[in-house]
Structure formats: C-alpha cells, structure tokens
Amino acid sequence: MDPDSSSEDDSLPMTMVRLSTPTLEEGRPADDATDRTGLLVSSAPSSDSRPVNRHRSSRRRDTWRKGQKKVNTGARLYAVWFLIIFLVILFALVGLRDVKQKTQPIKPVGLIIAKNGAVASEEIHCSNIGVDILKAGGSAVDAAIASQLCIGSINSFSAGIGGGGFMIIRGTDGKTEVIDFRETAAGAANKTMYSKQPELAKYGGLSVGVPGEIRGFELAHKKFGKLPWKSLFEPSIKMNRDGFTVPPELARRIQIFKELLKKDEGLAELYMPNGTLLVEGDLLKRENLADTLELIATEGADVFYNGSIANALVDKIQQEGGILTLEDFASYNPIVREPVVGYYHGRKISTAPAPASGPALINILNILEGYELKVDGPTQVNVHRIVEALKYGFARRTELGDPDFVNNTANMAEMLTKDFASLQRGNISDDTTFDPEYYNPRFDVQETHGTTHVSVMDKDGQAIALTSTVNLVFGSLVLDQKTGILLNDEMDDFSIPGTPNFFGLYPSPFNYVAPAKRPLSSSVPAIIENNGEVEMVLGASGGAKIITATLQAIINVYDFNMNILKAIDAPRVHHQLLPNQVIIESGYPQELIEGLVLRGHNVTVVDISQGMSEVQAVMRFKDGLLNAASDFRKNGMAAGY
C-alpha cells in the first residue's frame, strides 16, 4: 500500500460496523482492491455505478403516445401530468441517493480513521477507554495501560494483573526501548521440579510465576506517562464495580471451558453463579477486583508486591500447592532492554529481544526479503517460501532463553544478520519441503498459548505495542477470591528436562527452570519506522502463532499492498516446525493450498472464526492521519479520534 497517501471523511464516526466485502474507499486505499482472502483482485466499476440515462424515459414516453392515437384529450393530459410527477419524484430520489453515497461511503468495520490518536485492542469498550485517556491529555502509554487494565478485567482468560508480558515504546524523542515485565520463577524453583508431574506446570499453585504486569505498568508510567497514575485505573474500577455485559468472546470461552472452570471455586463462583453459566449479555460484576484496582490506584504498585495484595496472593498460591513467597514478590523488578532491530524493504523494525521471540521474527523477515514477494504476489511458490522461512525461524528460536541466564550472544547476533538469512534462503527449494531435521533445530521448546495485545499511537508521536498474558486459557485455574485476581500458569512455558520428543529433539536447556528466571515467550510487539518516523505499531496474541500472524500482517501491508484491516483479516498460514504441519485458516485460496500439498507439506485447515491468533495494529501516514484495526477473530475493535 502507499503509506504516503490518505483519504478521509470528516462526517464518519471513528468506530464502524465491519462489512464482509469492503470497498476500495475504506480509509487508506491500496493500489488494487482485495477480496476476503487478501489476494489482489481487479477494481473494475460495478454495474451499479453507471450514470442515469435521463433521456430514456422521454423516448419511452414518445413511443407510448404514438400507440395511443384514439385516446381522448383529457386522458392524454392526465397521463402526461402523472408522468411528469413520477419523473420529478424519481430524479429527486436519485439525487438523494447520490448525496447519501457521497456523505456516507461504505466502510468496513474495524478500519478506524483518526486524526489525533488511536487504540487497537481486542475489546471495543477497552479501546474506547484508551481513546478517552488520549482525549484527556494522556500519552500513548497512559492509554495502553488503561486499555489493558480493562481487557484484563473482561477477558481474564487471556490476560490480567495476575500475569505479565512485554512492551516496546518509542518516545517523542525518537528513542525506542523494551520493558520486559515477564513473570519469574520462584526463588526455590529448579529445573527438575516438574519432571515427574509435568501437569503441575499447567494448573494449580505450582504453575504460577511472580506476576509482572503492575510493576511493568508502574515503570512505563514513570518514564512515559502524563496523567496521574490513579486516573488510569478509574475506568476499570467503575466498570468492575457497576458491572459489564458479557461480550461474545468471553461467553464463547466460558462455554468451551466450562468443565475447567468447575475445578476452581473462585472461577466457578465468578462465571457460573448458582451453577448457571454466564451467557452473552448477562451482567457481570467483579467488586473484589474493583477494590483491588482501587487499592493499587491509591497506594501504588508497592501494595501489590510488598503489601496486602502480596499477602493474599502468596497465601492463595501456597494453599494451592505453590512455592512462591513474599520475598519472591518483593524482589520482582521489570527490566529495560534494548530492542532487536531489523530492516525490511528499507523500513526499520524494532521488536522485543529474548526471552521474547523478536529475533525469530527478524530472521524470518530477512529470509523473505530476498524473494521480492511484491513482484508476483501471493503465488503458490511464494506461499511455500513463506512456510519454509517460518520453519527456519522456528528452528533458530529453540536457542532463545532469558539472557540473564543464557550466554548465547554470538548466536543471537548471527540470527539477526542478512548474511545468515541468505545462507538459509539458499537452502530453500522452491519445489519441495523437507523433514524437520533439515532445518537444523537444536532443541525442542514448549508451545506457548493465550495472550492479548494493545497497540496505541498518540498525537505527539509516542507509540507503544504491549503484549500481556496469563498463558493458558484462564491461566493456572486459580482465582483468588479476596483480590479477584486470576493467576498465571507461566511456569508451563519453561522446558522440562527429560526424554526427547518424537523427532529426537531434547528440551532446550536455554529454557530450563531456574530461580527468578523468565521463561521463553512468543511475543513480538513491534514498531516500524520509515525515514525516522513511526509508521506502524503492531503485535498479536495466540501463543506460537503470534510470530506468524505478526509476520503476515507486515507482509500483507508491505508486499501485498493491503491496508491494515485487510492485512489483519486475510486468512493465514502457520508452521512452527514441530509438529511438522501447515495450519491454514479457512478461506485461504484452494489453489495455494494445493501448491503446498504438491510440494510435500502436511496441511490442516482450521476454522478462521476460532481465533488462531489475533493482530492489533495502528498505522500513521505522512500527512499524520491514522488507520487502526483490530482482529475480527477475537471480536476486536479499534477506536480513535
């Protein structure tokens, strides 16, 4: 797409209803229209766009008159007057139709056009809260924090203050940094603690890592915030205390995971009051969580890590078999890290380093840049090349781990170079795929899950991509009823020593459990710059599929000429090397699927509506106008002003 051009209609609301077949007049135009699959299609005018022939009715009238020579004068005059009145009304209606089309062009849901600031999240109410913060003079970081507190309240199955994550921020001074607020292992943790019972890493007190979200928000606010800390919490405090209607995605998750919810008294009480599952539209109040948020808003982050909230959470965790202590909470600190940087078609891409998966994203983009995908578009061979690049990127990802515990600097530096990507690209065959060992993975790693993402830009040029998680759906399945906090099960993201997997790969020692260590994450929050200016901020949720979803959003914009809504909505492919299969979303063109099968890929098609991964993005153009879009897969909706 052309990031230097824009279109705008001041009469349009910033939040619109998604259409299944968007037109070319939607915000930022691409060079060609695209269909639901994201493939380029012709933009020929439709039959409905033909001009009205105003002489046709006159010709018909003359013919009618010639055939009625025996009609008396009175009847003839009556017919003429009737026809005149009819034509006047017809022309008036045509004119009204034309006016309506000019003032209310059809636009798709999710593509937000804004002048000042925009927020893209998975929940419209939370996006609107972020925009309200921006309107009140808040920064992008302020808006992201407020939006994420809202998401953690509504979609607790994905994220919340009982979890952690990563954010990448570009300040108004042009400097970019990453805040790592990933959860940490207990001081008493060790690498063999789950060897005999690996399921204890998934559910219960032993699966919980020290939550990092509140300390991460505190640090980001101190460095980049503008509004008072308390004001960021007030919308979610009110929402939880007054109650909110259960949205479609939460209702869907409650229904799917109802048997899991029964395992915890707190979750059952919240989502199954009196034994009845909540459904879409029900009122849900979380007054204990409102009290907790109010306490943090008033007393600051210390109350979470050194005060009454820490006491309550440690008691609950230990009651459920966990080993976290007050000392573990008190010693937690977020870490400011330098972003990893790559370049794609001249644009600078900054993302989060290990223990996030930014290096893998940069490596895959470096491989694909050599193919010039833009020339031919998404052909059979180009889709095959994308899958092969994914396999190489995920093979190298097995060597990532917490840099404070892993001395792997040289390998990681190599992973980011164009020369290394060129060697990998040279080993890709356009005619066939290979078994996993061909891509030289050294280890096996745990598959990650869950998460949520928020992207924000403000009027002053600050930008943030924030990814947060509690890991598996509904985290550890431990909800503390005193505080209303659902706790993470982030310990499941560590590798567990033991026997090799089906492919003969042993678990990665780079990702073994250690005291206070942070587990490997699939998060890749990213900021893209063009000529020194922020052009796009994006990220995704969805475990290992975060990497592939973010990658394809970037490719769809910069190679396949889509605006960000189409780039996000288009069906995706996913391959993470192990297991050895290509997962393809429904709606992907059959001929492209056939091309993968012919090259030896194992293909599985999944329902696109099931939310394999969800992208949230904001894009700024040279004239300053913003486009923002959220992923329909999780019923997301952006907002702006």
From TrEMBL:
GO cellular component: fungal-type vacuole; plasma membrane
GO biological process, one term: glutathione catabolic process
Source organism per UniProt: Paraglomus occultum
Highest taxon, organism lineage: Eukaryota
One Pfam family hit: G_glu_transpept
Pathway given in the UniProt record: Sulfur metabolism; glutathione metabolism
Keywords (A to Z) from UniProt: Acyltransferase, Hydrolase, Membrane, Transferase, Transmembrane, Transmembrane helix
TM ranges: 75-96
Record-annotated active site: T451
Binding site for L-glutamate: R182, T469, V470, N471, D493, S521, S522, G543
Keyword Transferase: yes
Protein name, entry field: Glutathione hydrolase
